[in-house]
Amino acid sequence: MSGLPDARTCPGLGEASDLKFPLGAKFREPLTEARFQQLFGDAEQESDLLSEPRWSRLCRQWRRLPGACSGPGAWRLLLARLPPLRWLPHYRWRAWLLGDAVAGVTVGIVHVPQGMAFALLTSVPPVFGLYTSFFPVLIYTLLGTGRHLSTGTFAVLSLMTGSAVERLVPEPLGGNLSEIEREQLDVQRVGAAAALAFGSGALMLGMFALQLGVLSTFLSEPVVKALTSGAALHVLVSQLPSLLGLPLPRQIGCFALFKTLAAVLTALPRSSPAELTISALSLALLVPVKELNVRFRDKLPTPIPGEIVMVLLASVLCFTSSLDTRYNVQIVGLLPGGFPQPRLPNLAELPRILVDSLPIALVAFAVSASLASIYADKYSYTIDSNQELLAHGVSNLISSLFSCFPNSATLATTSLLVDAGGNTQLAGLFSCIVVLSVLLWLGPFFYYLPKAVLACINISSMRQMFFQMQELPQLWRISRMDFAVWMVTWVAVVILSVDLGLAIGVVFSMMTVICRTQRVQCLALGLAEGTELYRPLRESHKLRKVPGLCILSYPAPLYFGTRGQFRRTLEQHLGLGEGGKEAPKTDGPPDADVAGAREVVQLASRCRDAGIHLLLAQCNASVLGTLTQAGLLNRVTPEQLFVSVQDAAAHALERLVRGQEQQEGNPGGAGLYSRSHETTGPKTCTVWV
């Protein structure tokens, strides 16, 4: 490096090499952390790197907060919290408007039957699915950062909400309710579902206030996909009574899937031939249309709206044939026009529903953030995970005032929006216009819609979730650990319940992370011939171990769970527990907690007592700060902290050379290396990477 003094050129590959410049490596003057800050850092921060207390950094950040209340600061805050202010001025009206309009109308058409179908899955009347397909979509358009994200009713959330609603407001034993009693039961269940939406929205807003958008990473991709695949099987089984026309009570809790199957098989002789025929014809139309939309997505100008076609055909057939009166086919009935009066959910119920609201909030945010990230990467833009928390939190909180149940981004409609040519959040406004027209004017046309058709729509919408199992062979080849996470989560969801399966999946996923940190090995580094690069010796036999120098790498976080393994590994490789016997290896954690930092300080003390010269290299600022606060500088000097492995190795080689020169010049002297040679051989100079 030409900007540094005392740059040296070492012998080439064909020339003689000595201990100071092994294997023809070329290097400059070694840089310690302090020297690097003098050359390239700010003068004010030179001492802060190692000694600034954390409380002073927090105070400095708090002193910056009043600037956010100024005019420019308020405008920046407004731009951050209202994304349309950023993308709307740059909207390409000629290029994007038609695509957003077509995609929005297409998604809106699908929202109508799908919203009513998922409302039945939530155990509330169908019209409340339309409300949930309107208010959350409108709010996310104003607050969301996912340009291609479609929000509204989601099967997994509807299943979780329905299970909670059935437990909070169970149907009386016997099931023979009058019309008034049925209306009262529906009112109570709508209130419970709205309270769940309020609770999940409040939890997401609390997470936003604490800037916990990073929590979405704890629901890994295998956990989310296994959860949705297992929940799809629950949806399929839960819709069997509606497909067969069996008035069976909904099973909740653990083993609900098997209880439902047993009840269906027991009551199978009492199934309704009319509703079974309607279900078979509906699936015969919906499944092929779904397959055509997938196979010819590039050739079709817009996906075929199979759901709305099926809804219209079934409604006309039921009306003309009087299926509801002649064969007792269950129909949707009257959809109230307009919107419900806004009212606050019963806050007295909040303590009871918080246990159910937490997994609903986590699943809603994890699925939404995952979908938004996928399409953001595909179309080269970024999303703000904390802003997504705000958008979905406000969406659930405000929509609960209008009797909506929990909502999130949906897999099917998001894929449909992209395939139909959607470009921005403006497509959500066109989707809202379609749903609004149904709520205000077109609701009576769905009076004779059979509920069996809605059950078929629920099942056909699970197609994408079922096909996620096709990724299992590839997941097995890539990572056996992730495959195990997927299978454990899926089995737990299917056998137990969605809530417990999610908890087991997250816990098992965290356990695999801990296991991975426990399996990390301490790596001995060697020098690549003719360079100044150090790589693990086990990677190639061409790498050379520098005589008299031990370089070790510990590529894992050092925390309370790994400190024991760390101590045993270092004792084995440095011989600290064997009377001073030395062996090559060292470690360098990318992160450290209090227990890990104290372990490093103890290591420095033991190395000093054993006559080992310890050097630390390539530690990031966070690790250095933690080590400093733990008292590391009481055991080592700033001259023992280096910016890279190469700098530390060069410094160690110079030290070894000086020790050899002193030993040759004064054979009877009392230098470190001469005493070491007389007792146990030359001491290993350890470098911490």
Describe this structure in words.
- There is one protein chain.
- The protein has helices at residues 33-40, 48-51, 54-64, 71-81, 84-87, 93-121, 127-132, 135-143, 155-168, 179-209, 221-238, 240-244, 256-267, 273-295, 306-321, 323-326, 350-378, 385-400, 411-419, 427-442, 451-460, 463-466, 472-478, 480-495, 498-518, 563-574, 594-609, 621-629, 645-665, 672-679; strands at 151-152, 408-409, 523-527, 534-536, 549-553, 614-617, 641-642, 685-688.
- It has 689 residues and is mainly alpha-helical.
- It has a six-stranded mixed beta sheet. A two-stranded antiparallel ribbon has the order 1-2.
- The chain crosses the membrane at residues 93-112, 119-143, 190-214, 358-377, 428-449, 483-511.
- It is found in: Membrane.
- Residues 659-685 are annotated as: Disordered.
Keywords for this structure?
689 residues, six-stranded mixed beta sheet, disordered N terminus, STAS_dom, SLC26A/SulP_fam, STAS_dom_sf
Number of helices: 30
Q: Can you count the beta strands?
A: 8
What Rg do the Cα atoms give? 33 Å
Provide the low-confidence segments as ranges.
Answer: 1-20, 43-52, 579-587, 668-682
Helix share, percent: 55-70%
Query: Largest sheet, if any?
Result: 6 strands, mixed
How is the largest sheet built, in terms of strand order? 4-3-5-8-6-7
Summarize the structure.
The chain has 689 residues and is mainly α.
